[in-house]
Design goal:
single chain; 24% strand; alpha/beta; globular; four-stranded antiparallel sheet
C-alpha cells in the first residue's frame, strides 16, 4: 500500500494532535497482568486531547483492546492511574462508573443489536444512557421526540429507509451502521471503537469508518479506535499510537508516519 495515495478525510475544524485543548483521556503507569504471569500492558503513559481522532495499532496480543477497555474499567487495571473526561476512573464507585460510561459511545466488532427488532427500536435503545423505563424498550412506546431523534440518527448513517427493517434482514455493514446510530443516541463526548470494521468486507468497512470519523468531526467528539487495517489508521485519524512491548512504541501525527514505521505494527494481523 502506498500511504501517500490514501486520501485523508477532510472535515471543517478537524482537530490535530497539536497538544492544544483539554485532555479527554490520560493514563500514567498503566499496567495489566493476567494469570500465569502474562503482562500485556506495562507502565504505559498516554494523553489524548479533546476533539482528536486517534488510531491504536499493534500486532496481535499487544493489548490494543485491553487498553481501551481499561479506560472505562470494562477490564480492571492491575495498577496505574486513569483520568477520563475529568474523572479519576479507578476511584469511581458503581454509580459513578455508570454515569461516566453514559458519556462514552462504544462500537465493537460484535454489533450487540437485538436482531429480531427493527433498526429504529435498536437505535431508540441508545437513549437508555439518559432515560429509563418502558419508553426506552421499543419505538412504539418511545416519546415522539425520542423517536424523531432516533430517525435522525439513522438518517445520518444513511439508513433512514431501513428504519422499520428487522436487523436480521440487514447486511453486516448496515448492522454496524445501526450500531453507530444507536451510539449517537447517547450524545457521547467520547467515542471508543474496537475494530468496528474487522468483520466487514472492505467496502462496508470503509463506509463504517468514514461514518464514524465524519460524525466525530461533526459532533466535535473525540474518537479513539483500534484498527487492524493500515489504510484506515492513516485515513481516519489525525494521530496514530502504536503499541509494542506493553508500552507506546509509536506516537505521531498520522500524516507524518512512514509506511515502514507502520508496517511493523501490522506484521501479525
Amino acid at each position: 500500500m502506498n500511504i501517500a495515495a490514501v486520501p485523508k478525510l477532510a472535515a471543517p475544524g478537524e482537530a490535530t494532535c497539536s497538544g492544544e485543548g483539554a485532555s479527554v483521556a490520560s493514563v500514567r503507569g498503566l499496567t495489566k497482568e493476567f494469570g500465569g504471569g502474562l503482562t500485556v500492558i506495562s507502565g504505559l503513559d498516554l494523553n489524548i486531547q479533546h476533539g482528536s481522532k486517534v488510531a491504536i495499532i499493534g500486532a496481535n496480543g499487544t493489548g490494543k483492546s485491553t487498553l481501551i477497555r481499561m479506560l472505562v474499567r470494562l477490564v480492571e487495571p492491575s495498577s496505574g492511574n486513569i483520568s477520563l473526561l475529568g474523572q479519576d476512573v479507578r476511584k469511581l464507585d458503581a454509580r459513578g462508573l455508570k454515569l461516566l460510561r453514559s458519556r462514552v459511545g462504544f462500537v465493537f466488532q460484535r454489533h450487540n443489536l437485538v436482531t429480531r427488532l427493527s433498526a429504529l427500536t435498536n437505535v431508540v435503545h441508545g437513549v437508555q444512557s439518559r432515560m429509563s423505563g418502558p419508553q426506552t424498550w421499543t419505538q412504539l412506546l418511545a416519546p415522539r421526540e425520542v423517536r424523531a431523534e432516533a430517525l435522525r440518527c439513522l438518517d445520518r448513517v444513511g439508513l433512514a429507509d431501513r428504519a422499520m427493517s428487522r436487523v436480521d434482514t440487514l447486511s453486516g455493514g448496515q448492522s454496524q451502521r445501526v450500531a453507530v446510530a444507536r451510539m449517537l443516541m447517547q450524545r457521547p463526548e467520547l467515542v471508543i471503537a474496537d475494530e468496528p470494521d474487522a468483520s466487514l468486507d472492505p467496502k462496508a468497512g470503509e463506509e463504517v469508518m468514514a461514518t464514524l470519523a465524519a460524525l466525530a468531526s461533526e459532533q466535535k467528539a473525540t474518537l479513539i479506535f483500534v484498527s487492524h487495517r493500515m489504510e484506515h489508521a492513516v485515513r481516519f485519524s489525525d494521530r496514530i499510537i502504536g503499541l509494542g512491548g506493553g508500552r507506546v512504541a509509536l506516537d505521531k501525527p498520522s500524516q507524518s508516519v512512514s509506511e515502514p514505521e507502520l508496517t511493523r505494527f501490522f506484521r501479525n494481523d
